[in-house]
Amino acid sequence: xxxxxxxxxxxxxxxxxxxxxxxxxxxxxxxxxxxxxxxxxxxxxxxxxxxxxxxxxxxxxxxxxxxxxxxxxxxxxxxxxxxxxxxxxxxxxxxxxxxxxxxxxxxxxxxxxxxxxxxxxxxxxxxxxxxxxxxxxxxxxxxxxxxxxxxxxxxxxxxxxxxxxxxxxxxxxxxxxxxxxxxxxxxxxxxxxxxxxxxxxxxxxxxxxxxxxxxxxxxxxxxxxxxxxxxxxxxxxxxxxxxxxxxxxxxxxxxxxxxxxxxxxx
Length: 266
What we know:
eight-stranded mixed sheet; alpha/beta; Metallo-beta-lactamase, Chain A
């Protein structure tokens, strides 16, 4: 199982300045290739990092905020061989697919027709992309239909999406081998409906994955230094914690996970 981070930006300032890129990440799992939250620049970053989006089998959008969906339509066109071949799956919440509550649909009817299918998800609902089972999880965020996901195949990956930690969130990620967390702010710096390092510690102390990856960094996190925050989170939890960087590829199945980080990360 591999993840390539096409962007690790979080928050409007980092997004609009592109201090970090904002292309989401691509998950390779059990012969499926799934683009998660393709924000602004996803297509360009995929080209930059040598990813062939024509091989995608799915696109996932956690919620209808621009930094998570902006490039979804062109990514779907890539997945469908330039809109010439009906293929692939789109998974998103209600606002992503249908719009509502002041949000327009993130994907047009034209693009929906290019797909084998699209699934509207809410917490607890399950679907599949090939051999990968995908379960939607709740998220407490300003976009009220926001969700996270658990990917179950030969391994289990959790992606909590955007939102603050709340009691019971950990229950949805029980048994995850690996976790990706959007940690907008560093320790002791809070912002409503977003996760900071303190909340990441509370979450990871309950879920106990083998490896956690933090990303989606706002300006205050960049100033604090994401690598330093990851080290602090790891010290508080005992969970191996990595601060993602733009273009980073993590191969979770390489030998020597502890230690030997350079052997399986680039």
